[in-house]
Amino acid sequence: MRFLLRHLSLSYARRHLAKTILTLLGVVVGVTTFSSIKTAQDALVVGIGSTVDRVAGKAHLQVTMEGGVPEALQERLRNLPGIRATSPVIEQIVVPEKGELGSLMVIGVDLLGDREMRDYGFEGDDADLDDPLLFLAQPDSALFTREFAKRAGLATGTSLAVKVPSGVRKVTARGLMSPKGFAQAFGGNLMVVDVYAAQELFGRGRRFDRIDVRLQDGVSVAQGIELLQKALGPAYRVETPARRGEQMERLVANFTAGFNVSSAFALSIGIFLIFNAFNVSVNRRRRDIGTLRALGATPRQVQLLFLAEALIIGLLGGALGCLAGTAFSQALLVSMGQSTEMVYGISGSGIVHLTPAIMLQSMLLGLVASLVGAWGPALSASRISPTEAFAKGAFQAKAQRRVGPRIATGAALVACAAALALSSAVQGNALVLCVLLLGGIGLVLLIGPLSRAVLLALGPLLTRLFPSAGPLSSDALLGNPRRSSGTIMAMALSLTFVLGLGGYMGSTRLTIERWMDDILTCDLFVRASANFSRPDFLYPGAVKGEILALPGVRTVESYRAIRPQFRDRQILVGSVEMDTLMQRVRYDFAQGDRDSMREGLINKEMCAVTENFRDRFGLGVGDKVPLNTPGGMVEFPIAAVIRDYSSDQGAVFLDRKVFLRHWQDDRVDIYDVSVKPGTDPGRVRDAIRAKLSGRYPALISTQREFKDEIGKAIDAFYAVMRITVLLALGVAFLGIVTSLLISVAERTREIGILKALGALPGQIARSVVLEALVLALVGLMLALPAGNLFASFMEGPVARAFTGWAMPHHYPWEVLGQLLVALPLVSFLAAGIPARQAAGVKVTEAIEYE
Amino acid sequence: MIRILLKPLQFLLAAALLLPVTSAPALAAPDARALLKESENRHRTKTQQYSGDLTVVNKEGKVRKKGWNSYRQGYAGDSKNLIRFTDPPEVKGVGFLSLPRPGSENPDQWLYLPSMKRERRIAPQDRDASFVGTDFNYEDMEEFDHEKYKVSLQGEETLDGQPCWVIAAIPLEKGSRSIYQKLTLYLRKDILYLVREDLVRKGEKEPAKRLILSDIKNVEGHYVAARMEMTDLKKGSHTTVTLKQISFNRPQPASRFTLQNLTREGGD
Amino acid sequence: MLQLKDVVKSYDGKSTVTALAGITLSIAAGEMVAIMGPSGSGKSTLLNLMGGLDVPSSGEVLVAGTDLAKQNEKGRSLFRRDHVSYIFQAYHLMPTLRVRQNVALPLRLAGVPAKEAEARVERVLAEVGLENRADHLPDELSGGERQRVAIARALVTDAPLLLADEPTGNLDSARGREILALLRSIHGRRGTTIVMVTHDREAASACDRLIRLRDGRVEDDGAAPGGDR
Fold it and tell me: Which UniProt keywords apply (chain B) (predicted)?
């Protein structure tokens, strides 16, 4: 075996270096996609966790409360036994005016005593808080990490402009932290300010985001939790930083789980590419194999030889893919991080590390993928009889198999997948996996024969349309049906993916837009935070009166949303003045009706829940929702179930009076302002702006603008998915390139003859481009029905499982339109190198090629 | 039993010994508590005020200067203290208030920051934190009260040509807490005035900091060190306060040592 | 028709290999010439130079008045398209194209309209006697038939120069004879200049003239012996 490998395979690889590299490329592409996605995903999740951990410092426990922890709590905590130190914290993400520096995590701490909690690395030669008194006395004081300061060109005493809720503020560096422990959190993009300055800066009032607690030696964490919980009551959450990190990680991990699908997908495409490459390699070396067999090699030896080659290529490809993946993952991570920040208000640090685990997985994957891909070709190579191998020219057209059973099996599998999706036998991730697996295999079985049929039918048409290049392309495509159908398969699967996800995103967007038209009916929205899920600033409740007093204002509603944990999920509890709200919005009821909701919410302290809340938690009209309030647990009976898209985790709505009574917190996220008929909202907007200016941050949007902004948030939610779609296209692109390069390489002799027959380089090149185009378009044709099925699956069972919302189907015309423009371009680009190569084939060499 | 009997005896002995202290320092070693008590009695004043120049020199020799006005009412364990920064302009108005608490608890301390328009209480956990970036911590800002320590005479030593009593003081921690394991006090024999303090942190053996009081003057009949220097022996930095315009026993308005006054714009 | 002056062709590798070491010869229009010689004597190289598939290291290759040595790749392609056609030992047909399409290929490449091409294909197929095989795939034909398809493909462009590389090499002697007769009759009817590289004495004797090569030089040039013309 070693002998064969060394002499036969190695010399082949050396002689056909380009082709060997192509085979390798198949593995590399697959593994790169997998490892980049996985690395970015892990980095994001771990980054979030480790940021929580690092920022926590020596804190054993963190006390939080929905809406913020009142200042007075700190004194209460200090007086409890077993507590060594407490420290208030406010956390906020801001963006420097120079956006390229990346988001900054602002941590407001009480620097007077925070050293019990966190190590700032001031001690020693290389670190210094320049003047602590100055730091405290000046509200613009901030600390930065050395690393960030270097990037931003900051020195002690110089200032940096950052965007905070009330506008752009200059903060002055009063000290630099050494990169260890705490200062490594959030990738070093850290800004430490005084916690009281942070209250002011971020509208926290007299509240902190949390209080970090360090226990006395000898007090266990469990004891600490018990002690604090008993002393503080259920409205406060007492958690270890690790658990808090875990919860955030879980939220984000759920969100990025969509990437697993893309990873799997990329890998299967990688397998195709490998399969293709090995197939071609077997065909090309048919004579060598025949000679081997004639010389007495057993079929098993031949098979093993090919598998050994696959093994080496797999290992090599795995390693290379791993490296390339790490390079790509950084960009991926940035995009994922932006999405999670927009959607959940959680940001991780932006540093990617290639972990040994991912490395191992990637290598293994490359290996398995190449072995799987090479298995079939290796088997067929082993079955080559010596005489058959020496027969010239005959083998290429002879690769047909019985297609009947194959089509039947494929159709049956697809039907199975559809049935499974419609029934509720399997749920959640398992459902997605099963359906995709069954459907995928079914499609693979179907696409081969179908693509061949389509190509055969297309042949004459091509010849008619392109008299000179047409027959050449058609010959190339049909000449090696396995290669062509393999490429078309990869293409069709990619496009199925693109159309499916595109359709799903489109439907979601449309549904939410319709919902917004029903709900967002007031004229102006006044809010302090650009981020919808993380209030950067809250208005005092009294601002309502000020706005209402302005001329032209008809009604003002105060919307406040908190995001408490409910049965391990972060739901949304929204409150607003229901009496005026219900006069202007149109709810779509799943249970109950307008009157029951009105009566229940306004007069009976009941709540309304969203449909996805009901489906998730099994609580509908007649049930009660138990919610933790500062005064203890309160049960709110459900008056109505509405279709609403405020939260993908489920939402509960209360009348504002009820909320105020139980939560004792009158701050407001958004003021919904309706103007009197005939009044220009623009003028009212100016009046509100003038009224609030200098006191509060005010982002005032008209109805249209507000809807656009929510649209942007939805887009952010799907940004990850959109990357996946791009990835799919990228993989398809690479698939075409590889296939064409192999096609050209394989047909060198034919191209030589064509040239001898008078074909011009341009003609040959054009035929290669045409070949690419046909591959892409046939792929698209086959992907149309499959994509539609996939979209329906995403919109129905998958969407329901992950968001609780079922989306009505909406055909992705716009995606199709984009594809019809993009595909020819992509295939044109993909054909570039192969076409040039084909055009440059030397006739004499080509003819002597065999 | 013995202790009860001994106590009055001690007093007698101390009284007998203390009379000739100034004239006959070479007599047998007196009791540390008695020395400290006598010192307190001798130097006690009702009020004190001065304006101080604060100089912090860090290890690298970088110098930061500040100016403050200091007001004190009462003495040792029952003293009230207000410091108001006057210089440089960036920190002008920053205030520090220390008020005794009943019993033997640590005093309450607040720092006021005009830019935030609010005071913040110094938590017991923060007693080791540096007082506004100096080598003093918040505990050092409390007036020394020997009653909160178990004291014992360690011997005698001559500092700068002045013979001194060396007294070890170990915090009793009855209700109060200290960050120190032990203080070593150097009391000048002739005037019973504290001229040096070595501070050993809990869990440590060697002193972490050293306070030296020098430039001792007699102002309005009271001895006072016009220069205090705290050296952080580990960090290699030191902080000097020089006292100017010192006056004693001036009546202080009662409202001066209140939170209300601390948070008043420009309140002294 | 064809003039070679001091043509040298050498390949640079680890050591320089001289395939043709200074060949001067001329072939008149309408001649039918056989080139023979042992393996490695430079036969195929000579043929490739004549067809503009390759360029000489030095010397001139004048075909129909054009010096191919001075043309670039595209120029030679265009020249080939108009003046030269090929027949190969291994036929080199496109396996997935029907006979008709295979024959039409050069016309299609030259941009001849479909209708006209079709007519010309019919004509040459009749000429080689394959009119009833027009819709078969190459796989479905015998070796002789395949070579006839190749000849038809060579004829369809009406190129004045036909280069054949061992046209009978893969055929048994009977089929070989048929092919030679076909070439002979084409030569007679069309006046096409034919240059044929062969190992086969019988094939050589079908020609007017025989050029023998040895070690890259012309060893002998004269009338073919025992021709059955």
Answer: Lipoprotein, Signal
